[in-house]
Predict the 3D structure of the following.
Amino acid sequence: MGIIPQQILQGRQIADFCKMIGIEAPNSGFEKYEPSMHQFEVYSWARTTGTDPLEAFFRFSGMVEFTFNEYVFFVKSLLQYKSTFGVYEFHDLLDNFNPIEAPENLLVDEAQDNSYSLTMALEKLVVAGVKNMWIVGDPNQAIYTYSGADPKYMYHFDGKEKFLEQSYRCPKVIVNKAKDIFPDAHFNPLTEIGEIYREIDIPLTADMVLVRTNYIGYKLIKRTGIDKRKVLTIHKAKGLQGDHVVIYNATTRRVRTSTEIDPVAEKRLMYTAITRTRKKLTIVDGGNPNEWI
């Protein structure tokens, strides 16, 4: 498409657009209050999943503080802004992806987080010449469903299935705890036993403290004085590991509403949090703890 990085709608441009139409920009980092779902989040989910952007409003109506008419205004304004300033969203790049040629061999990693739009792009690569494709992922760790990821797209292409069953991270009690959530999980533990504890206070010597949202993390840091570099949302901890992992098991109104919409997605988050552990897991229950751990 001949697009340069400055034409991708992100960061400062998003903030400028939101200011132009009179709404707050999406937050990032630790928040001092629990934000409702932003218009950009609803719209982005729709684009990624191939859903009509206006229909998406009704899926998340219990998690937003803007009206349908305000959301319609947002969508129309965004389309006009993109046209006027010649900028594109990442979704536009996928939709307009048209490869002339493709590699013969293709590896798709973390495929549990594939979305509809990404899968359609992969289809175009197959048409363009991909002959062999390896699709690797763990459907139980599909934790980005809020942005349109769906583990069903791991199985979009026909092929042979092979399980990589040996874990090189988790000891026995950690694997057993993860299988309490998903009994059919295909992985075997290390020979080490491991440790799991339930505590009242956060052990400050832990390698990482996992929280459900940035807002919960902000409150925890303020209350305990724990090093904020150790506090991560479960989403940000994906791909990381630690000898001693703490899960601060607390939820918010928005999390509980999200769980009502898609309870399996919440179970995947808890599974992912548990399996960050190499030796010792400590669970500390906070307000409205998650029922699966």
